[in-house]
Write a structure and sequence with these properties.
By secondary structure, the chain is of the alpha/beta class. It is 32% helix and 25% strand.
Amino acid sequence: MRCVVVDAPGDHRALKVLSRPDPVPGPGEVLVAVEACGVNYADAIIRMGLYASARQLHGYPITPGFEVAGRVLALGPGVDDLELGQRVLALSLFNGYTSHLVVGRTGVFVCPAALDAAQAATLPTVFLTAWFMAHRQVHARPGDRWLVHSAAGGVGSALVQLGRLAGCEVVGVVGASHKVDYCRSLGASVIDKSSQDLWTCARELAPGGYQAIFDANGVGTLGQSYAHLAPTGVLAVYGFHSMLPRSGRVNWLRLAWDWLRTPRFNPMDMTQSNKSVVAANLSFLQSHALELREGMDWLLTRFESGALRPLPVESYPLEDVAQAHRRIESGQTLGKLALLP
């Protein structure tokens, strides 16, 4: 097998492709011959040493990656409901940047026939994160107004689709003009903050505020996002991208300054304004594995029916993992990225 290993946190040079003995599935496990690995911004944060679950749940050396698609290569004892050669996608807690992945049966799902390997490998993390926020934290209702930051990215694209599917009016925020048409094609009204004033446009589109705002930017927008909630509105936080580097190297002084400037939400103000703040991190939800499996089944049923559509994917050979990380850190991508072992 070939896999990407990060021995210790660092810049793009920390990503090494190594050969190791092929793994063998144990009881209740499945060995997947990986055809595509999903790339997420969280993987770059893992490489930098800033991802809390990587430090607390795994440690270094570590193989990044949370999602793959491929074919069943071997079945461990007790797994009798899959077939050798069957197309599957899988969720893992790290270890996804690999050509061969052993994963527990509960993390393996039959791949929708309409999706190719790259499309399938890049949907679990972002769509499941979006589903958890939309249907377990925000409780989407028809007619709700949503504001989705980074609406052309992975989770953002998924949120726009889930919001529209639930009958919500979705406003998507993008940071570059080449993302506007794509975001609009998903069914959102679009604010291009590279040429428009974000909050002026946001107020014009929803004078009474938003029932839900989804924000992965951190200090750059969190305060204003909370201010633009309607009474009973919910701010859903799932990242801090504006605080993190785009060069692959951490500027610790800037990170500390941004951390100090990050809004702290006052519970007394929240009770008087009837506003809420929730947050989500998929890698810390392992205790909710059955609920997440329910969410994946719900999502895959809608991919099968065509109600949800896969995201555009940029693909790179496994050996070009550093280039893929540079690309996702640039902030210029649409949809998702994948590595092809």
